Amino acid sequence: MLVLGDTLIEAPMPSRSRYFESQSFRNITRRYFSKGEKWLSAPKPVLTSDSYLWDGTVPYLAEIEPLFDAANILRCGKDIFYNVSNSGNRAGLEWLESMFGDKYNFHIMSVCADHIGTTIQLLRPGVVLINGGRIDASDLPDQLQSWDVITFNEPEDIGYAFDWGRASVWISMNVLSIDEKTVIVEKNQKRLAELLSRRGFNVELARFRHGRTVGGGFHCCSLDVRRQGGLESYF
């Protein structure tokens, strides 16, 4: 699910196993709609074999239909950063621009293989957290080049259940900013907590033992459908 302003969007996810996932939230979305919120679904993808391509080293998506996960997107006021990867194609960006281009500025990037939340996190206006194991400041979109960059290099592996982890050790970077000063961090990530504390953030430690098992951190597992304040431009 993706929220843009007062609109709740069911994303056209490229994973066949997640095709009906948004229906799990139908009772919630129906309540939003009845209270005057906008609710829509992106075009439902067909997801034939032609949607998936392979160049011999990495998988990627064809451009025959709009495909994206909400986690491919960084929202920053009036600016939307869209990561083209194996979980979101350019056709997905084109659909979003056609629907919301009159209100938001869309920027294309390709900084990681799938979801953006373990590579870049916007902590507050003017401050961005990046995964030092994947990118450096020069890899950020032009609009973020002037921001204060906090580089994180030492994630703690909290382990996982079953045979394989659905997220890497970098799920530790999937923090949740509550406001411009407060950030929720997984309690085992002491080095990250100390790093953010030194940069002036109030860090709240919370337990999330199965982040690697379920494939998501605090940011992944939350959706801010209620906000205070207006739509602003930070650039």
Automatic annotation (TrEMBL):
<comment type="similarity">
    <text>Belongs to the amidinotransferase family.</text>
</comment>
<keyword id="KW-0808">Transferase</keyword>
<protein>
    <recommendedName>
        <fullName>Inosamine-phosphate amidinotransferase 1</fullName>
    </recommendedName>
</protein>
<dbReference type="InterPro" id="IPR033195">
    <property type="entry name" value="AmidinoTrfase"/>
</dbReference>
